Structure formats: structure tokens, C-alpha cells
Amino acid sequence: MDFLALDFETANADFTSVCQVGAVLFRDGQPADTFISLVDPEDYFDAVNVSIHGIDEEAVRGAPKFGEVYAKLGPLMANRVVVSHTSFDRSVMSQCEQRHNLTRPDCKWLDSAMVVRRTWPRYARRGHGLGNVALELGIEFRHHDAAEDARAAGRILVCALIESGLALEQWLDRVRQPIALEAAKPAARDGNPAGPLYGEVIAFTGALSIQRSEAAEMAATVGCRVDEGVTKKTTLLVVGDQDAMRLAPGHAKSSKHLKAEQLMAKGQGIRILRESDFAALCSIARAER
Fold it and tell me: What is the largest CA-CA distance in the chain?
């Protein structure tokens, strides 16, 4: 979970009119270092843009030009995965490199909006904007401040990594594939009425050692109804073993895990268990049939 989240604000509709840049370095899924700078866009400020981010001619007076900022930003990007929410910021960087005749850093870009659309089906077609996703995931930030936006994009990506169970490098390939893969069919199943765990309602989160569909089939065989998400009817939430090991304070939990804890706090009887414990439970349940 080591990557650089990047965001730009522009003075007008021209992508090269950068007036602020923010970059947040994430280490092990947590914000570690922040780089933020106002930039003299060497261009005019459009009233619409100013109304969005609040940056104007007065704010950037004496600020460095893009080439000067790039001297610090380029090394931060080099040999890293660079994350932006939508392709806007990557396009800004590309056009600024051309305008200022800058050497492109050797990095790999990852669009966190593309990750979101493939992680949560409800965002596949709409609603995957930075503000909306952050709101639903409980991520607080000051929108249209470059560093705040970059930090929010990074936190959203970390949530998606945990939720999907895919590693950062795997997502570099996954975003190039269709949103709905054959392997990503819904895991929902009805439980076997004759199964010893009939009546339990289960959901899965995190990286499992087996395919999610295989885990769902195993649960359904012993009687569990399998749901895609955590609801007021959920009784069991299975967390991948590796994710369960990272649940020390300060580490992110999946949205399913957080929702389960919220429901537990309200008195709902949900049990959270590791995948290996769930597998053992199924093994015992099958032996008792």
C-alpha cells in the first residue's frame, strides 16, 4: 500500500494553468508525507475556477512557476505508483510536461475512480466522484484543496484495496479490464435449508485465500445465506486472514467491517471471524451432518 496520491487545481479551463499542486505519500496504507505548493500559472484566473477553489491572482503572487515546483514533484513521482481520482490530473501533468519541455518521470499511474467503479457495483455507472465516495466512506476532507483532495483519493484507494482483496500491483492490470468480470459475479447465495448453519446470514470482506464465489458456495452448503454486503440481517462477517492481522489502531478497515461494527454497537448480534476460523467452522458443520 505504498503510493503517491496527486491532485492539481487550475486557474482556468486550460489544463496547463496549474495554480496549486498537492501530493501525499502513502506508506503501508497511511498518509506519511505531504507536498503542497501554490503555483504561478502564468495565465489568467477564470471566475468559475476561483469560485471552486478560492485561489486567485493575489494568492499566487510570488509563488513558484510550474517548472520550479516540478523540480520537487518529479522526484516524488519517480519509480512509484501515482494515484489520481479520474484521469484529469494525469492529463494535466502530461500537458504541463509538453508545455514546459519537462522530462516525464518513470512512474505508473492508477485512476482511483476506475478502482472504485470495479470495487463497489453501486458506483459502476454513477456516483464515483471524489466527494460522493468520500462522503459514503466517512472520509472527511476539504474539497478542492489539492493536498486534501490527494489525501482523500489515497484513502479511498486504501479502502478499495481492503474491500476488493486485490493488491496495488494487481489493480494496475484490473483497471484495464471490463468492470464486470466473469470471476466477479455476485457472491449472493441462498443457504441450504438442511445445513447446520441455516439461519445465519454471512458476508465476506478482504483478501481471501480462495475465490469469493468458492467461499460463498461453501457457506451456502452448510446453510448460510450469503449477502453481497453487511445489512441489518447479517450475523457473520468473514475477514481475510491477512486483513485481520492488520487491524491494529490506525489501520484502515473495509466499509463492510466498519458497518458491521456500527451495527454491533447498536446491539445487532454480528460475529466477526477470520477466514481460517470460518473454514474450520464449515468443516465441523459438514462433519456433523
Answer: 76
Q: How large is the average pLDDT for residues 70-89? A: 96
Enumerate the β-bridge partners of residue 6: 23
On whether the CB atoms of residues 158 and 252 are closer than 8 A, the answer is yes
φ, ψ (nearest 5 deg) of residue 229 = -130, 180
**pLDDT at position 39 over 80:** yes
C-alpha grid cell, residue 20: 496549486
How many other C-beta atoms lie within 10 A of the C-beta of residue 60? Answer: 20
HSE-up (13 A, CA, CB side) for residue 156: 34
| Residue of 214, 230, 222, 157 whose CA lies nearest to 193 | 222
Q: Which residues contact 126 (CB under 8 A, 6 or more apart)?
A: none
- The CA–CA distances, whole Å, from 276 to 132, 214, 215, 226, 259 equal 35, 14, 11, 17, 22
DSSP string, the chain: --EEEEEEEESSSSTT-EEEEEEEEEETTEEEEEEEEE-B-SSPPPHHHHHHH---TTTTTTPPBHHHHHHHHHHHHTTSEEEESSSHHHHHHHHHHHHTTPPPP--EEEEHHHHHHHH-GGGSSS--SHHHHHHHHT----TT-HHHHHHHHHHHHHHHHHHH---HHHHHHHTTS-SS-GGG----BPPPTTSTTTT-EEEEES--SS-HHHHHHHHHHTT-EE-SS--TT--EEEE-HHHHTT-STTS---HHHHHHHHHHHTT---EEEEHHHHHHHHHHHHHT-
- Asked whether residue 252 carries a pLDDT value surpassing 90, the answer given is no
Model-level pTM greater than 0.70?
no
